[in-house]
Each structure stands twice: as structure tokens, then as C-alpha cells.
Amino acid sequence: MPSLSASLFYKEVDLLKPISFDKVFQFEKFNSLCNGFVQLGRYSEVSNRTNVFELQKGSGRRWTVEKDLGQLRQTHHLYDEYEIIRIVGKNPFLWHDHWPVKDYAKIFECLVLVEEISSEADKVVSKIKEIGLEERRRVGSLEKGIDVPYVAVHMRIEKDWMIHCKKLEQRLNVSEICSSKEQIMQRVGNIAGLKTPIVIYLAVADDLLEDNSILAGWNEGLLPFEKKKLGVLDIYKKQPYLIQSAIDYEVCLRSDVFVGNSFSTFSSLVVLDRTQKMISMGGTELCGLDARWPSYAYNLEGESNGPRSWAANMSDLSLQAISYGSNHISCP
């Protein structure tokens, strides 16, 4: 069973505490839904923990199908005596960059949040919809029988991201990775066909945010809320950093419109999850407001100076774009 950890740097070492998979997702449910595809086991079920085989892996993200297969052919006969294989090396984590996207996306159908996290996300979404309902009643734009929609924006402007994205732009010689607060607000405000008034939930890592003016400057009809203004800060503050991220992920996933950064793994996984859900429900329109759950990338310019429409490329043969981000996204 894997542990989950945050990819942070700068001064946030205290936020890097890993959390066991079953503290976030339902373990037995995962094995039941993914039976025949992927299965997880508990470390406590291992009978001999002292007899360990160490497998040398270099930089985990640079391994290919051929390298993995070659190593397995050379060493598979050694594994029979061991219950534990310890992966060691410079970056010893296993990251399946060489999985086809459509195979990797199957895992999302097996991931079910534990009740505690799911119920906390319910509270946040209910609060967002409650505010949206009140505003629509106030202006007389409430349509009977229609659920009150909201937009979730993964607003990546925290200090850890700004350091990372600027270095990434220099390394890749690309200028469409970092986005300012003003650019994000402008592009979200230019989403064609977005009906207002509508609540804009800003998913930000509060502990890493140095700009306290993210609620100012939005277009009329767009109602920006972050955790404090929404009145849900206490829900998040009692949780460790990773659980806060899991709640925000679920709030973004459930949004009627999602806007993120195409070079953010968090945003890319939300879009992959939403794309997979639309396909599973028989959806054929995956891009733009005609889609069931449309997504956009605010770091890339789309039509009318809005964000570019975004759906995961399910035919991609590797997870390169999702792992590291890309400015080539599958929507035109």
C-alpha cells in the first residue's frame, strides 16, 4: 500500500509528512473496484519483514518500458524468496510515466474518498451552492429545477509555485507556464457563455499564499470566495496539508466548470479525472461549455482572450503531459 506525500520545497519541510493511502481512500473499496487490474496489500500482512531484497532504481521518472522489462528479466528469479522488495536509488519512487493515459485513468474509478474527507468536501460544496443560490435569488435569475453551478479555479500563485514555474519557463524556454493573479482573473472572466452571477471558488494553498488581495478585481457577476470568506477555514485548518489538498481536489472535481494550470500536476489530474468521468457516462463532447464538466487552462490563451478549453488526451501513450505539464492540450 503506497503512502501519499506532497511535492513541496522552499521552507515547507514540515508539510511533507506522508500519509497512508487508507487515510485518504477506502482501501477495500479500491481493491474491489480495481480487481483484475491493480491490487494493494498492507505492510502488516507481510510475515517476514527482515528478509528484504533491495532493487536499485536510478531516477524513477526516467525509466521506460524497455528498461523495466529488461531489469525484471534479469532479476525476477531472485524475488521468489522475498515478500518485500525495497526500491532504492537517487529518486527511488515508482512513477509509471510509460502507462497509457487510458489505463492510468481506470484507477480513478477505483478511488473512493474515506467518509471523513468526503463529508468535509460536502460541507464546502454545500456552502458554495448556498451562497450561489442566495445571489441568484437576489438578482432574480434563479431557474427552477436547475442546480446552482459554481466555478473552481486552481489559482496557482503561491510562493512555492512561482519559484518552480519561473525556473521551468527558463529551462523549457516557454512563456506560458506562470500566470499572474490579474491574468487568471481576466481569462476566467472571458469564458464564453458563462452565466452570471456565479460563485468562483479559489483553490489555493493558504499556508503558502503571500498575496492577500486575490478576491479583488474580478468582473461583475463573478463572486470570488476562498476558504476564509466562505467560512470553511476551520474545516481545512484542523487537517494536515495533504488532507486539505484532498478536500480541495474533490471540490474542484465536482465543480461545474474547472479552471487550472496545464503545467500543474494537481490541475492535470483533476482534468484527467473529469475527462474519464465524462467518457464513462457516454459523453462525446469533452471541450467547451457544451461538455458535461468543462475544464480550461488559464495559462494558455483561448478564444476571446479567455482560458483555453482543456480535456485530457486519452489516446496519449504516456503520462508525460500529465506528470510534467504541457502547453499542448487536446482541445483545439
UniProtKB/TrEMBL annotation:
Keywords: Carbohydrate metabolism, Fucose metabolism, Glycosyltransferase, Transferase
Alphabetical list of InterPro entries matching this protein: AtOFT1-like, GDP-Fuc_O-FucTrfase
Pfam families, per database record: O-FucT (PF10250)
Signal peptide positions on this chain: none
Domain of life: Eukaryota
Family the UniProt entry places it in: Belongs to the glycosyltransferase GT106 family.
Protein name, entry field: O-fucosyltransferase family protein
